[in-house]
Amino acid sequence: MKKNILITGGAGFIGSHVVALFVKKYPDYHIINLDALTYAGNLENLKEIENASNYTFEKVDILDEAELTRVFHTHQVTDVIHLAAESHVDRSITDPLAFVRTNVIGTVNLLNAAKTYWKEYEKHLFYHVSTDEVYGSLDDGGFFLETTSYDPQSPYSASKASSDHFVRAYNNTYKLRIVISNCSNNYGPNQFPEKLIPLCINNIKNNKPLPVYGKGENIRDWLYVVDHARAIDVVFHSGKNGETYNIGGFNEWKNIDIVRVLCEVMDKKLGREKGESEKLITFVKDRAGHDHRYAIDASKIQKELDWEPSLQFEEGIEKTVDWYLGNETWLENVTSGNYQKYYEEHYE
Length: 348
Ligand code: NAD
Ligand code: TYD
Prior knowledge:
It is built from twelve helices and twelve strands. The chain has helices spanning 13-25, 65-75, 89-94, 96-117, 155-174, 196-205, 225-238, 255-270, 299-305, 313-326, 328-335, 341-347; strands at 4-8, 30-35, 55-59, 79-82, 125-131, 178-183, 185-187, 210-213, 219-224, 244-247, 252-254, 281-284.
């Protein structure tokens, strides 16, 4: 059967890499990118494939049930890969309801649209993309497994945990075919510069302070975004109904060490004296309820689906820094609040 895959959040950071990968790798699939183009969505991320004959963009909010129904009918959607979300923990602390709306209600709207439009559930798949943050915070030992109990600590992770539960409930109750993956922190091109790595790159470039929360001792497990997109491809095609797959890079770093690495790489790239950018490091008030450590055990996806990260962290950071330094207009557009400029100029 020919697939018409609805990818939500495809104009965002991870979604844009997933859309580009699927459009290029699977010319027989029709990829429909559905995105509301919030501050985090930018069609400039997709200029490489925007004219491909197997690609369509739909500017739709997942809170709009009627529009979701129209999109399912118009494109005869066969499968969903759901990435659209509010994704930044700090924003969830100031505006939790926005996260409930998009991440919880939006996900249920999408599940309902699929449940209603699809007739023979065994022929379709609803793939929900989630985060390791649903498992809560680790001490210095241990890893998150697929069997680890949910224990979300921030409004963001609580909303993602809730959406994961709804997806599993639709599998159990209505027998919708589903898979879920929970991934660690991503970095790479197209990430909005509010998250740690692109924020530091942008601030170093502009000689602005690098705000490190608390003592910088919190630990995250980092994965290059293209490797996450490759994992999503594998889970979509080979994941088993009802299963969860953890995705991670076995690559833990303290925040302060990441910031120092970025300073070192940027000093070289910008021709600054060694140690120059480190002077920008500024310890600031800690994030409320800051999770101490995330660490994924990705052995299930490695063993069962034969996926593993392809890039070493040093290489990934180098590529990321090069990308941000080479894409000044992109940075200017997204940081000036002019994030819809590309859409207005190319689509309206
Ligand atoms: P992002 O914030 O960069 O992109 C989110 C996209 O969703 C944007 O294009 C935005 O316009 C769109 N969107 C937001 N609200 C919408 C709505 N109501 N209707 C339609 N579109 C809407 O996020 P990201 O970092 O690319 O994350 C994508 C997914 O992956 C999210 O579900 C996130 O929870 C998950 N995830 C992210 C990470 C990470 O490190 N960034 C790690 C694991 C999982
Ligand atoms: P972030 O990129 O926001 O991802 P998440 O909170 O989802 O893990 O933050 C990564 C880590 O960096 C996290 O421990 C918070 C910290 N951090 C800072 O120290 N300073 C910053 O300006 C930001 C945005 C994050």
